[in-house]
């Protein structure tokens, strides 16, 4: 029986320019090919002004280096696996003009919007010693990110739960989550199911199943990403993620090219994947 044609993209992958990832873009792309993916969209952490969390992202003057790095990988792997340029851009109130200019500097295929509550500048601005209040602020900012019109997809959209896992009570925060999801649904922005959450302090995908069900009820599209910071993490646990989406009520999975959403049935996407070879190292990020 022949292998089905590749359908999916890895929609969340990094490069060493973010200062906490390893491996050349070609290695990530070849891993995508080995996993039966049609392609990979690199979404490295965007540069931000005033040295904001610069230890976790490229410097502003490195943005053109990033564009050239991905263009080179795309050219070298042409005809084998589709390599595309995207960006993971941090959102917090007031950053909108910077991001609008940044996103306009080159043609991007997929722009992730991330609220990174773990960065020191964000915590300094919004954390007041109350974990629940911090969670509420996070979901308010997530909705604002969607409403900004700057992003195609909101990444790891319950990331805040890893800041204080012992303080995470979904039943308690659910009304705030639902209000945020109602706002997000009205924008048409997609949301990510990020498999790297299985390796975080609260070991479940981002978002968890309860939130996924609420997203399904509102018809919010979902994009799949492993948040790969090294090549062997590309498409990590995608099979499990697709099953999780089905149990939450989804029937389709999305990805973005030219900032336009593409959709394929989950059943077809699952059939197109190739399993990880048993000799390859286990993922751990």
Low-confidence stretches: 279-285
CATH topology: TIM Barrel
How many domains would you count in the coordinates?
1
Q: Biggest β-sheet: count, sense, barrel?
A: 7 strands, parallel
- Count the beta strands: 9
Question: Strand-residue fraction?
Answer: 15-25%
* Class from helix and strand fractions: alpha/beta
CATH architecture: Alpha-Beta Barrel
pLDDT averaged residue by residue: 95
Task: Report what the structure shows.
There is one protein chain. By secondary structure, this protein is α/β, with parallel strands linked by helices. It has helices at residues 25-34, 63-76, 96-103, 120-126, 131-147, 170-187, 209-217, 238-248, 266-272, and strands at residues 9-13, 39-42, 82-90, 110-114, 153-154, 190-194, 222-225, 252-257, 260-265. The chain has a single domain (9-272), classed as Metal-dependent hydrolases (TIM Barrel, Alpha-Beta Barrel). The strands form 2 sheets. Strands 1-2-3-4-5-6-7 form a 7-stranded parallel sheet, with helices on one face. A two-stranded antiparallel sheet has the order 8-9. A hairpin with a 2-residue loop joins β8 and β9.
What's the topology here?
Layout: E1 9-13, H1 25-34, E2 39-42, H2 63-76, E3 82-90, H3 96-103, E4 110-114, H4 120-126, H5 131-147, E5 153-154, H6 170-187, E6 190-194, H7 209-217, E7 222-225, H8 238-248, E8 252-257, E9 260-265, H9 266-272
Parallel strand pairs: 1-2, 2-3, 3-4, 4-5, 5-6, 6-7
Antiparallel strand pairs: 8-9
Helix pairs in contact: 5-6, 6-7, 8-9
């Amino acid at each position: 029986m022949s292998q089905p044609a590749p359908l999916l993209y890895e929609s969340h992958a990094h490069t060493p320019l973010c200062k906490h990832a390893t491996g050349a873009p070609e290695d990530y792309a070849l891993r995508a090919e080995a996993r039966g993916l049609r392609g990979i969209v690199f979404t490295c952490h965007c540069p931000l002004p005033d040295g904001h969390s610069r230890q976790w992202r490229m410097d502003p003057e490195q943005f053109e280096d990033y564009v050239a790095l991905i263009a080179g990988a795309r050219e070298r792997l042409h005809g084998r696996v589709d390599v595309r340029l995207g960006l993971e851009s941090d959102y917090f109130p007031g950053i909108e003009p910077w991001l609008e200019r940044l996103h306009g500097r080159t043609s991007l295929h997929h722009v992730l919007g991330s609220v990174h509550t773990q960065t020191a500048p964000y915590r300094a601005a919004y954390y007041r010693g109350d974990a629940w209040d911090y969670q509420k602020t996070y979901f308010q900012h997530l909705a604002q990110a969607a409403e900004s019109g700057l992003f195609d997809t909101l990444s790891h959209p319950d990331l805040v739960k890893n800041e204080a896992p012992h303080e995470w009570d979904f039943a308690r925060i659910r009304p705030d989550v639902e209000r945020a999801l109602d706002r997000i649904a009205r924008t048409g922005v997609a949301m990510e199911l990020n498999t790297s959450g299985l390796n975080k302090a609260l070991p479940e995908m981002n978002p968890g199943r309860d939130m996924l069900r609420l997203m399904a009820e509102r018809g919010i599209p979902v994009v799949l990403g492993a948040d790969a910071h090294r090549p062997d993490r590309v498409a990590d646990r995608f099979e499990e993620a697709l099953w999780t989406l089905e149990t939450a009520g989804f029937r389709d999975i999305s990805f973005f090219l030219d900032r336009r959403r593409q959709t394929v049935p989950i059943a077809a996407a699952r059939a197109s994947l190739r399993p990880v070879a048993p000799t390859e190292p286990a993922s751990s990020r």
